[in-house]
Amino acid sequence: MKITTQRFYILLILLIIGASSCKKDTTWNSDWIIPLVNDSLVLSNYYNDTTLAVNSDNTVQIIYNRNLYSLNMADIVKMPDTTIEQPFSIKFPFLTVPPGLVFINQVEENIFSFGDAVLLEAGVKSGKAKVVIKNPVPVKAIFTVSLPGVIKDGVEFTQTITVDGGTQLNPGVGEMYMDFEGYTIDLRGVSGMSYNILQSKLMVQSDPQGSEIIISNQDEFIALVTFQNLKINYAKGYLGNIALSDTTEVNLDIFNNIVGGSIDAGDVNVELSIRNGIKASGLGKITLFESENYQNNIVGLTHPYFDQNLTMNATQGQFDNLVPSKLIFTFDNTTGNLKQFIENLGSKYRIGYDIQINPYGNLSGGNDVIYPQSRIDLHLKADFPLEIGTDNLTLLDTFEIDIKNEDKWLRVESGELILKTFNSFPYGVDVSLALLNENHDTLRELEAVGNVLPAPINASNDGHEIIEREIKFIINNEDADALKDSKYILIKAVLNSTYLTSNPVYMDDALKFLLQGKFKLKVKL
Amino acid sequence: MKGINIKYLLAATSFCFFVGHIKTQELLPQIYDTTSVNQQVVISGGFLQHSSYLHNSIVRPFLFGGEIGENDKNNAWETIDGYDRIGGGYHGRFEYRAGKQIFKNNENWSWMMNLSNEAHVQGQYTGDLFGLVFIGNEPFLGKEADIESTYARFDQFWTIGGGIHHKKTKSFVTLNVVLPQNFFETDVDGGRLRFSKGGESIRLITDGEVYLANQIPYFKGIGGSVNFDYNFSFGDSSKFNGIISIQGRNIGFVKLRNTTRYNFDIDEEYSGFSISDLTAESKLPSLMDTLGIESGEKSIYRLLPGFVQVGKIAAVNSEKKVQSFFGLRMYTTKLYRPLIYAGAHYRVNHEFSLGGQIAYGGYGGLRLGIYFNYNTENVVVGLGTEDILGLLLKKQYGHSGLIRIAWKL
Fold this sequence. Notes:
Largest sheet of chain A: 10 strands, antiparallel
Helix content of chain A: under 10%
Structural class of chain B: mainly beta
CATH architecture of the largest domain in chain A: Sandwich
CATH topology of the largest domain in chain A: Jelly Rolls
Oligomer: heterodimer
Number of domains of chain B: 1
Distance between the termini of chain A: 43 Å
Mean pLDDT of chain A: 87
C-alpha cells in the first residue's frame, strides 16, 4: 500500500512537470481600427509665393520664377593668398633715439596680381592677414601698422603692437592678425594713378619708459604680411576678358516618379533670360536646352535665337538699385516646340551657355564694376493658367517600411487598408499598392476596391465640388505573411483629368486623405 | 532613455491577467500534531489563481496554452461589472526543523531554517481594458474606454532564513533575508481612451507610473521578513475546544534598487502621421517623447506580499472522527480582500484523513476546497485544492493546488 501510494505521488508530480513543460502558446484575436496617415494637399498653402497665384475667377495661375543657374562674379575675381616681406630702416647711418621717439614712419607699396584684371578699388567680403614684426634693436619698440586707403566706415585700418627687443641675428618677434571684413581697398597706390597696389605704412616708436639707444641703417625692421582667404564683393576697374561656358543640369525630382501617360499643358507662356548684373558688357549664347524624361526620351527646345552670340549690355544703377540687363528668349504655343518640350515631362533639364565678359577688351576705360548684388544668371519665368489635362498619367513611388509581423507577440492576421479621400481637384486617381522585398521584387500586390473620382465644377463655376470616396486594400492571410519580409511599399497612382484639355484648377481645390488600418491582430504569448 | 520593451509589457500584461504559476497560501488545514518530533524536513508547494469575474475558460489558455475563443472572450467581457481583481502566484518551500535542545531550561525549543522561492501577481483592471486587450477597439468606436485605477504588480523572490521552533506545539519564528528576482508595478491613476466614431482619431488621457526592476542579473535588491506560527489550545474537553493557530508568512519589506520609473501624465490625440513625418530624413520622435513619458532611476521600498492567518485548526491526535476548522486570512497586498473560511476534517483511520472547506474573499468570491492527508509514523503527505470546482469547470473563477510532504527523522 505504501509503495503504491508513493508511486502515485511521484507519477502525479511527473505529470504536472510534463504538462507545464509542454505548454502551448496562448493566442487570441482582436479587431482594431487605427489611423495611419492623415494629410492633405491644399493649394491655398502655396499662394503668395512665386509658384501660384489666383485669378479673378478663382482659377489658379502658375507663376514660376526661378533662377536655373547663377554665377557670383565675386567668386570669380579673387585675391590670391599673398605674402609680402617689407623691410624698413632709418635713412641715416646712425641715430640716437631717446625714449618715446618715432624714428621710422614709412609707406611702402605692395603689388597684387588679379590675372587679366586691373583693379582700382575692391571691397572685401571676408579675409584676414597675419602680420609678423621683427625688432632688431635691443630694446622694446612700439610698432603701428597702417594701411592707407584701406577704410571702413571712414576710418583707416590701423593696428599697434609692442615688440620686445632683440638683435639682427635674433630679433624680437611680435604677431598680430588683421581682419579685413567690410573694408574697402584703394588699389591706386601712393600716386593715386596706379592699379592693383596695396599701400602699407609702418611707424616705429622707441619705448617711452625705456632708455636712450643708438640705431643704424643696418638695423632692419621687418613687417611680414600674409593675406589669407581674401574674398571681394565689390571691384572697380577693368575685369579682364572672362569666358564662361558650361552645361548645367536641373533635376525636377517630382517627375522622376512618372512612368507613363501624358499631359496636355494648355496655353503656356515661358520666358528664359540671361541676366547680367555686372557693370561690364559681354556676349551671351544659349547653346542647349533639353528635357529628358523617364523613358530617356530627349526633346531639345528650339528658339530662333538659340546658338547665337547676343550682346549683353552692362547693368544699370549701382548697389541696391542695380537693374540687370537681360537677354530674353520668349516662348508660347506658337514658338518653337515648347508644348512638346513641356509635355515630354522631363525630370532632367540640361542648359548650355556661353558667356563672355569684355570680349573686345577694356572698352569701358577701367569703369567695370562688380557690386555685392551682381550676378550673371539664367532665369526662367512662366505664367500660365493651371489647367493641365492628364491621360493615364502614371506615378510610381516607393517608401521604406519595417513591419515586424512575426508570429510571436503581435501579428496582423488579415485586414484592410482604408483610404478615405475628399477630393476637389479635377483629377481622378486609381491607386494600387505592392509589397516589395529588399531587392525591390514584388512579394504581393494588394487588391484595391474603389478609386478617387475627379471633382466636377460646381454650379456657380467658381470651384469644384468635393467628392468623398473610400478605397479599400484587402490584406488577406498571404499578404499578412508577406509583411514580415516586406522592406518597401510601392504606390502606383494613375491620374486622369475630367477632360483631356482645359481642366481649370480653383483656389480652394484640395485633396484630403486619411489612411486607416483595419486589422485583425493575433496575440501569441 | 530606456524604451519600454513591448515584450516585457505583453508579458507583464499576461501576468496581470493570469499566470500559470500561482501563489499558495499554506492552507490545506495544517493538521496539528502534538507528538514531539526530533528532526523534521518539510517540503511544501502550490499555486493559486483567483479572480472576481474572469472565468477559467479565459485563464486556462494562459496556464496550459491554447486559443481563447471568441465566445469566451465576449462572455467574459460582458460579465465584468466595473473592475475585475485577479491574483495568484506559486511557492515552493523547504524547511528543516532540528531536534537538538538549544535552551537549557526548555527542552522543547530547537533551531530551524527555511528556504523558499515565491511569486505573487495581482491585478485590477476595468472591463473596458479587458475589452481593448481581448476584443480590440472596434466596439469602442465613438465611445470612451475607461482604464482608470488599473493596477498590476508582480513579485518573484527567494527567502532564506532561520529561527527557533517548539518541538511540541510546532510554533516557530524565523527571520529571513529576501532576495527579489523580478519586480514590476504599474499604477494608473486616471485613464481614458476616446475613439472617434470612424476610427479617425484616438485620444489618450491618463496619468500614472510604472516601475521595472533593474537589469542586474540575479537579485534586484534586498529585504527582510518574518515567518511564524503560534499555536495554542483553547477550551476544555467538556466544552468546545481545539487549537488556535496564528500564522504569518513573508511579513516584511523589500528594497528594490535602481528601479526604472516611468512617470506619465498624458493628454494626446493621435490621428495619423503626415507624409512629411514618414519621408523626413530624421526619424520619428520616439513614442515616449511624443507622449511626454519621463523616466528615471529610483530605489523603492515595498511591503512583501505576505499574509497573516488566524483560525482554529484540526489536530491529528484528536479522538474525534470529525473536527471543525475555520479562520480568517489577510494578505499584505493592495488588492486582496479578507478571506474567511470554514470546514470539516474527517479522520478515516490512523493513516488517512480528508476534509472540505468553503471560503469567501481574497481576490474573488465563494470557493469550495478539499484535501487528503496521509499520515504514517515518519511521513506526512497532504494534497489538496482550495477550489475543487475551479479544477473541474470552465465557468469557475480560479485554480488552486497544494502539496505538502514532511519527513520525521
